[in-house]
UniProtKB/TrEMBL annotation:
UniProtKB keywords: TPR repeat
Organism for this UniProt entry: Denticeps clupeoides
Protein name: Intraflagellar transport 88 homolog
Originating gene: IFT88
TPR repeat positions: 236-269, 420-453, 454-487, 488-521, 522-555
Range of residues in the leader sequence: none
Keyword flag Metal-binding: no
Amino acid sequence: MEHVHLAPEDEDDLYTGYNDYNPTFDSEELDNDIGFQQAVRTSHGRRPPMTARFPGTAVGGRPLATSFGSRVPLMSSMGRPMTGAQDGAARPMTAVRAAGYSSMARGSAFDPLGQSKGPAPPLESKNEDSPEEKIKILEKKVNDLIEESCLAQSRGDLQLVSCRKTKQEGRKDNDMYPEALNTYQLIVKNKMFNNAGRLKVNMANIYFKQKNYPKAVKFYRMALDQISNAHKEMRIKIMQNIGMVFIRMGQYSDAITSFEHIMSESPNIKTGYNLILCYYAIGDRDKMKKSFQKLISVPLGIDEEDKYIPPNDEPHTNMVYEAIKNDKLHQMERERCVDMVKGSLYVELANDLEINKAITYLRQKDFNQAVETLKTFEKKESRVKSAAATNLSFLYFLEKDYEQADRYADLAMSADRYNPSALVNKGNTVFVKQDYEKAAEFFKESLRNDSSCTEALYNLGLTYKKMGRLEGALDCFLKLHSILRNSDQVMYQLASLYEMLEDPHQAIEWLMQLISVTPTDPQVLAKLGELYDNEGDKSQAFQYYYESFRYCPSNIDVIEWLGAYYIDTQFCEKAIHYFERAGLIQPTQVKWQLMVASCYRRSGNYQKALETYKDIHRKFPENIECLRFLVRLCQDLELKEVQDYATKLKKVEKMKEIREQRVKSGREGSAQSRREGSAGSDSGNSGNSGRSDHLSTKLRSLPGSNEPYETSPQRDIGEHQQLFFFWWGLSFLFCKTVL
């Protein structure tokens, strides 16, 4: 309370004056106010006229009226006495200008919003002849037709759809040529437009479509005059169009003039052909021959050896190429070409032409013709004989005729001992005989003759790898990688060698470089997953195994690993998908179907597991594992079928025991003969033993009643990759040889 201030009694009341008001605002006494009534009765028309005009400022030095009372009458700002004064009684001063009135326009009505100007003008009507409106109308029609066709098709009214389509196809030729010409005319009249020549070409094309050939020629020539010589290709095309128009007009002489000019400046196949037709039309045989010589001298723009190779796999195109590659003109071309070379100073080139002909046969996959052509060089001079024999050795090696391949490799070496390709082929034939020491010697000799022979270096690395000399193989492939930086085969071999040297980190590093070159190789991705799995990194292994499965969903090893991964991580429902796919790939393997049933059982879906086991039993009635699970499930679910399955299980187990006893007795009875068996039979038995061991490993990987699922060991893919890369080395050798 010490901060509260109380007003003393002698101070003025804070609310004093709130009930007082100015009598000016007392509207009830206006009827008795004489001054106000006099002002109301004052008429503007009876005011005295103005005698002088003063500036619009108030007269200075006059008292201002603020309330009723006696005061001196004031002059208005316009120089006239104020109205409303009567008997000395004053009234409040009025405004100089009344609202809605002005001294310049007397008698005008009060219109502060400007509504006296009349109604708004009507909207402009759309010009339906404008190109924009026509485009909008056509677009609407097209959309309506599409919508109507879709509805008709949904109703099955295909006749209406076909009718609409026919009408549209009939109308699509109704081009707006006059509108286009008018638009082009407006553009080319603009002097600021620099490409008028190109537009005149378009105008000439329109006249050509309208069959107005004189106009077309006129505009083509106008365009030719306006296009500079710097655009040579454009001028040639215009000249060609001019020649075509003259042909349509029947003026062959003028067309010949245009075509002759083109053949002298920039010859091409189409112009040469049209020139021959024009000379044929006028009956000039001599000029036809000369024109044909000009035509065949025009370069085709493709390699001679690729001229008769089909560019695609279309049957019609292949039939055309098949028809022309051995026609009379082609045969005459080959014969005259070889004869001309043989009769010239460059007779040595004839042999190269024959070899190129054999290479062309190879590219056309005509191996028989290629072999026949190359065999003609067996009695030629040494250099040509060596090249032909090298290629023959390669061809026979591809056909796995290793004896002939070895024979022609020896023939190539006898003709030219320093031929590195012949030494490589000889080393290959020795390699397949598993004489790796001798093969390495031939590859080394090839490298001594040509240190840049990458085929010899690659195959030498493979030979060292087979011999177990991993450091030497690693040195070869590292040298090869410095030459072929982006070779995926070399990168894979380096990764494989580091894995064999028990350096998984380096192997992973090289495989990572490999997938940067070939990111969609499923084998490489699976190998990366295997290495990460061996290192204990399950998440990375899963990532690469899953990518491998995405690109190749039929790899059993990858499918098996992914299924096992989901089981280990307690996601048995997801593992079912992979084992079902494995069952589709190998429908005769019961283990995949057993794994599907096991996944259902592990996930708690016993009813589905029971149905799956029953289905397996129908397909494989003698499978003991399936019967055991059926007996156990029927017991757990308290089903009546348990006794039937138990009886079947005992019967199958009894049959198995009988078979085992028979096999055992048979082995004991033939122990003497087996000890006296040949070495060949020993090798055969060892092979069967290996297969049975592999099968037992697979069977042991199946889950028991209380055992978790275990994956089988991954298959080594190194051998497969080595074989593939060995083929690659040979094919690369062939390309190098013919070059």
